[in-house]
Amino acid sequence: MSVLVYTESEEGVIKKIALEAVSYAKGIADQMGTSVTAISINANNTSELAKYGASKVLEVSDDKLNKFNGEAYADAIAQAAKNEDAKVIVLTSSANSKFLAPTLAVDLNAGFVPNVVALPERTSPFKVKHSVFTNKAFAHTEIKTEVKIVGLGKNTFGLKESETSMSNEAFSPNLDAHDFDMEIVSVDKATDQVTIADAEIVVSAGRGLKGPENWGMIEDLANTLGAATACSKPVSDMGWRPHSEHVGQTGKPVASNLYIAIGISGAIQHLAGINSSKVKVVINNDPEAPFFKAADYGIVGDAFEIVPQLNEKLKAFKAQNN
Amino acid sequence: MKILVCISHVPDTTSKINFTDGDTKFDTNGVQFVINPNDEFGLTRAMWFKEKQGAVVHVVNVGGPETEPTLRKALAIGADEAIRVNTPATDGFSVAKQLANVVKEGGYNLVIAGRESIDYNGGMMPGILAKLTGSNFVNTCIGLEVDGDKATVIREIDGGKETLKTSLPLVVGGQKGIVEESDLRIPNMRGIMQARTKPLTVKEPVDASAETATVSFEKPAPKGQVKLVDNVDQLIDLLHNEAKVI
């Protein structure tokens, strides 16, 4: 018996959320008196997993799996879970984890709870806390099946070092033709930009910017901070920015360390989407904007003056502190 | 093409979230219920298939009689028939088991669901339904074309999108992008009148256990006061020394 964690990688490099998932899996394994096995798919170097508590890593290496494929990835993880007799499987809340989790749940006849924010309160019965109502509340839910799947919410547990001696094993799952029914025709992905999903810092702007031509200063600020750019719903609905930047209840959730909202009033749907961010800053010329009630730090003032100033001062700050 | 659109009955996005009965139940007092936004984008795309490709569109909900006004709204938007599976929606897995039965009995070859419901955010129902019915599955779907039994689907991925070719039977988890916000339809009087006489069939549930059970809820701790600063130097100082995020 063990706790199995799927450690996602991008272009062969293990992602930070995967290390967070290993830390979390180690926490559960300690509660249950067992160890952590990781499974990686086409990752180049898995040695870092030992630092966060993995005792073993199953390394899948298969050119057919270079592009994400929900069916095949779920199949590989399910076979690993059966081989390892894993009773708990830890995934993340990435788009890929959310894609494969339901398939895996059926394969293993396992109950699944996504958006988990803390270690289980109990492991027998197995009860976890997870966010619901788009971060407006939490639920405490029991998983009643023998095998359990949890999807860890981003930036909820953190990285916890727990140096462990780790063994590496090659693992070749048995994949059948059905796993490759779907053909990926093209992938359109900006490789030079930080994604909202991965970003530590997100710079977001709203209607207060008056028009799409004014986004230059937002992009400049994001560049300085190594941040992703995002926007409010009206901005994406008007076509000023792409849908992929829309943050909120019907858009993307943001769970960054720092969220900077510029010219966003703070509608309840927007605030729900960013609630899991750790520190929130608002810049708005309307002191009555609801965002000031949700933020940690705020400046009341004109974004067109403040944002360029903030960018210049941050550049100086970065130059000094690096 | 026979399309089933799965409709979740959820609190409006502006709802204040409260709980009753010792924090064990969602407080529906004063809450307006709507079609789950992700499902409404999918329903609107289904209307396009109905009008351009002659598809038959049915909508389904798993829930009690209180969800029927939401199904009637879907009929007013243009769906041909509605089905309600008469059992509470306890978790995504059990809802998928109920819907798998509906899909098999109704012979649907395209199922459009939302990426997730905005209440419990489980996001698992479409994927489980696909697996249970032996269908192909694409999640976070932002584009869908069907030609015969071939489908071209655009999926949103972290940081971009990918285009996939697949075939029916197919289940998609849709979201904004499968149609635009401006494509959404407000039911007109004619649609509302017609919806009253369209079939809404109540189906008894199959035996399906839930794999998870929510025991209690809690609300996030109240937030402290915002710290207002006068200039960007103070802000940078606080972010660096106090919040330690830069």
Automatic annotation (TrEMBL), chain A:
GO terms for biological process: fatty acid beta-oxidation using acyl-CoA dehydrogenase. GO terms for molecular function: electron transfer activity; flavin adenine dinucleotide binding. Binds 1 FAD per dimer. Keywords: Electron transport, FAD, Flavoprotein, Transport. The keyword Glycosyltransferase does not apply. FAD binds at residues 207, 263-270, 284. Signal peptide: none annotated. Pfam families: ETF, ETF_alpha. Residues 3-184 form the Electron transfer flavoprotein alpha/beta-subunit N-terminal domain. Belongs to the ETF alpha-subunit/FixB family. This is Electron transfer flavoprotein alpha subunit apoprotein.
From TrEMBL, chain B:
GO terms for molecular function: electron transfer activity. Keywords: Electron transport, Transport. SUPFAM superfamilies: Adenine nucleotide alpha hydrolases-like (SSF52402). The keyword Transport applies. It holds the Pfam family ETF. Residues 23-212 form the Electron transfer flavoprotein alpha/beta-subunit N-terminal domain. SMART domains: ETF. Belongs to the ETF beta-subunit/FixA family. PANTHER family: ELECTRON TRANSFER FLAVOPROTEIN BETA-SUBUNIT (PTHR21294), ELECTRON TRANSFER FLAVOPROTEIN SUBUNIT BETA (PTHR21294:SF8). This is Electron transfer flavoprotein subunit beta. The lineage of its organism: Bacteria, Pseudomonadati, Bacteroidota, Flavobacteriia, Flavobacteriales.
